[in-house]
Amino acid sequence: MAKDIDIIALWDKGKQLDSSPEIDIDKAISSKSKGTLYWIKLILTIEFWINTIALPLFVYFLIIQDKDYIWGGLAVFITILYLFYYQFLIGQIKGFSLEEDVRTSLKKLYGYLKFFLLHYKVVIWVSLAIGLLKGFIEDVPQQSTPEQMAKPMFWIVTIAVSIFLASIVGAVMHLMVHLIYGRKIKRLKKLVKEFSN
Fold it and tell me: Three-state SS string across the chain, please?
C-alpha cells in the first residue's frame, strides 16, 4: 500500500499557494480512504466466506457426529450471527460516501476503522471466555479424579492458571491486532482532531 498522505501538509500548502492551481485535498483523501476501505472490505469478505464454509462443518462434526448439542449449537448460533454481522459491515462500507465535506468523511472513516478494530477485540475475548467455560464444564472433569475435584484448592489453582494463560494469549492477540491496525487508527484520529480544531 502507498505511503499515507500528509493531508495537513497538503492543506497548508494549498492555502499558501494562492497563485498556483489548488491541490485537491478531497481527491487525495478520497483516494486514500477508498484504499483503506477496500482492504477492510476485503478482509471482512474473506472472514464472511470462512464462516460460511465453517457453518456446515460445525453442524456435521459438532452436532451430527459428536452429538454435542450444547456447544455445537452455540457455535452454529454464533457463526450465523457473525454472518449477518459481516454482511452489515460490508454493506455499510459499500454505502460509504466521500461526497460530504472533508471532516465529516474523515470522522466516518475513523468510525469504521474503530469499529473494525473493536470487532477483533470482541472475537478474541469472547472466544477465550467460551473456551474457558467449556474447559471448566467438560474438560477438567474428564481429566481429573473425583478426589481432586472435591478439593477447593484444586479448583482455585485450576481457575487461576487457566485465566492467567488465557489472559496472556488474549494480550498477545490483542497486541498483534493493534500492531496491524492500531497505528493507522491513531493517525486518523489525530487527523480528525486537527481538522476539527
Answer: CCCCCCHHHHHHHHHHCCCCCCCCHHHHHHHHHHHHHHHHHHHHHHHHHHHHHHHHHHHHHHHHHCCCHHHHHHHHHHHHHHHHHHHHHHHHHHCCCCCCCHHHHHHHHHHHHHHHHHHHHHHHHHHHHHHHHHHHHHHHHHHCCHHHHHCHHHHHHHHHHHHHHHHHHHHHHHHHHHHHHHHHHHHHHHHHHHHHC
Residue 30 is predicted with a pLDDT of 55
2 vs 152, which has greater pLDDT? 152
pLDDT in tens, 66-91: 888 888 888 888 889 888 888 887 88
pLDDT digits (tens, 9 = 90+) for 16-37: 544 444 445 455 555 555 666 7
Among the listed residues 83, 17, 2, 92, the one whose alpha carbon sits nearest the alpha carbon of residue 50: 83
